[in-house]
User: Fold this.
Amino acid sequence: MKNPYKSLLLTLCCLLLVFVIGGCSGGATKPSSQDDGNSQVTLEFWTIALQPTFTDYFNQVIADYEKAHPNVRIEWKDYPYDAITNKLLTSISGGDSPDVVNLNTEFASQMGTKGAVLDMNKYLTPDEKSAYFDGIFESTVIGDKAYALPWYTGTEVLFMNKKLVEQAGLDPASPPQTREELIEWARQIKEKTGKSGYAMQLVSKLFPIDGIPILNEDKSAAAFNNPDTEAMIRNIQQLMEEGIIIKEDADFAKQVQYYAGEQVAFELAGPTFINFIKTAAPEVYSNTIAVPLPTGKGGVRMSNSMNLVVPAKSAHPEEAVQFAVFLTNAGSQTAFSKVANTLPSTKASIEDPFFTESDKSLEAEAKIVSAQSLDKATDYMVGVPNAKDINSAITRALQNILLNGADMTKTLNDLEQEVNGILQQ
Assistant:
């Protein structure tokens, strides 16, 4: 769920990074345990909001790892989403760094650009790197440095209210394949039922979905201020005015509300959406099917991944990387997917029957459809420095144009300058 204080928190955290990196410039020190394989090593492992739901799973994984590595002890700590970044940065600056930390791709990349986490490429073998889906692994790479290991992930699917679709004279067995077709379906839904097609958030991924690069090739300057972007925004504007798309920057909670109330026929989301709709509107849940997400001009499907990083100030970098590799290998990821209903970032995992066999439930349909998209998945801010700040700037600009009636040319010009300023930080 989105938190109204998240952007402010990240801004403060980024300011603290400047101070933190002052102590990181020397790089990590090799641990003494590399000289004596019998030395006891304690690794501090932090996750985001996984306790108590998955406590049993992690206790078992940690026990298995410690049994296989008798000189390593794992201390697991879990923090809320909005607490972990501040906690991490203050711990590092205070000289008490954890060793393995769960972060999203945006913040992992942001930490990487400041030199606050290790370059995994210095530690991984080619086989270890190739175990992950290419597009998802590349989301952690800036230049030639990989700042994180991909962990659990998700890709969006198209959820459809079968009842509304059929009322509009459409065949849910032949769903739309492209965004253009989806819009035509949404238009027919509006004409025949009076309902809107879908609600959405005004975020930067709208650009790559439509084949518009946010930055230039070397990620040094904005590249979106062009006629293609203006045409995309005008199209959204028109669809909002016609009521085909809800005229709102609708966060996930609002999207659940609209779909549960049958105010829209479609929802573009990951499989976790099912849990919310099943609770909020059981009858709507029973009328919902999941199909592959229609692609835009960019021909990509977006992933939203969690990652593991090793802070540069870890006292035991090699052991920390080894533990992170273990947690993110195919066996561990497959096991976690089965208890958490997430998707793995490892290629071998989706060969498991868990990702290929269906019991015809909505949960199984969504899981299989999502897994089939992983080889085309990419994080939409691949290798973008200061990604969170750029995302926030783009969202504000889209809100001003689409919801507040701001002049498009001036707003895009101002946004271009703002993004270029962020990249120079």
